[in-house]
Design goal:
48% helix, 96 residues, two-stranded antiparallel ribbon, 5 helices, 6 strands, four-stranded parallel sheet, alpha/beta
Length: 96
């Protein structure tokens, strides 16, 4: 969780957006990680393809967004882009 992030300060994080209570707990986590370590590059890995959620994740500080039902090579490609500081959006987000 967040304590592990603070201890390790990884350069790249893959974050799942999970519903908790009345909202997406992952969005708050993305904001907290970016506030604590602005240089950290965050890739969201989610089952949610709602454009509003994608937009909120990017506004919170994520650099990339990949849908969970995609093949592992898509995740690897997204990770590489985000690791290099580039924005990466799952190709299916634009077509749905």
């Amino acid at each position: 969780g967040y304590r592990t992030f603070l201890r390790l300060r990884p350069p790249v994080v893959i974050c799942d957006l999970t519903f908790q209570g009345s909202g997406l707990a992952g969005l708050a986590l993305v904001r907290r990680m970016r506030a604590a370590e602005p240089a950290t590059r965050i890739l969201v890995f989610s089952m949610h393809n709602d454009p509003v959620i994608v937009s909120r994740a990017l506004e919170a500080g994520a650099l990339g967004y990949v849908l969970k039902d995609h093949a592992s090579n898509e995740l690897f490609q997204a990770f590489e882009h985000v690791r290099m500081g580039e924005v990466y959006l799952d190709r299916r987000l634009a077509t749905e």
